[in-house]
Specification:
Helices cover about 75% and strands about 0% of the residues. The protein has 12 helices and no strands. The radius of gyration is 20 Å and the shape is globular.
Amino acid sequence: MAPSGDVMGAAEDLADQFLRVTKHYLPHLAHLCLISTFLEDGIRMWFQWNEQRDYINMSWGSGALLATLFVLINMCGQLAGCVLVLARKFVPYACFGLFGIVFMQTIAYSILWDLKFLMRNLALGGGLLLLLAESRSEGKSMFAGVPTMDDISPRQYMQLGGRLLLVLMFMTLLHFELGAFTIFQDIFGMALIILVAIGFKTKLAALTLVIWLFIINLIQNAFWSVPTYRPLHDFLKYDFFQTMSVIGGLLLVVALGPGGVSMDEHKKKW
């Protein structure tokens, strides 16, 4: 067991060193990654205004006026939310606005009935939940006055909820196929998912997931290699930026830690 412990200890030391070097830049990178899917979608709404309006009109029979209003709210809401998050101004309001956009799109584009896309949207919501938790200092919490148990604040429950929702992204990447590499990938990924969910060795597990997911994203969602006139280009582009947003959420886990509702925190009391 000693060699395994040495490897784990060395990996944790490497992760800690990475955090010390990047502590001033990591939150900004996390924010940029997290809002990337909203930024891309908002810009796409502008360039595909007519297509998006016609799709909503035909899908729901809403009429041109309501369809135009839907596209306008989506475009302005996403771009405004991105600007506020990057500027670190009114971040809670930006998060609630982006939550609303995710909910609207889940209904409007019938994502509710597609398990894969639903899980990815929930994972995106987990990233926003972590961003909301980060924006609330303990002294100026939006839940000020709410009683807590065992010194666990609502902010820490938000961190727990964010972690649990983020791992849904990885459930969509498991293949459950026979094959040595696929089986290894599924077991490896599942182990990291569980570690992040329960908050054990959280920063190391989350950082490893960031690297793994980034590599998978470059390989599986290489939209730049597909001609823009093909529908596959837009599908891959959507998946790519949504995955980048989940990576941003994981980077927030790395930067913030797991919070009070985690095994890492309880280990300190043992």
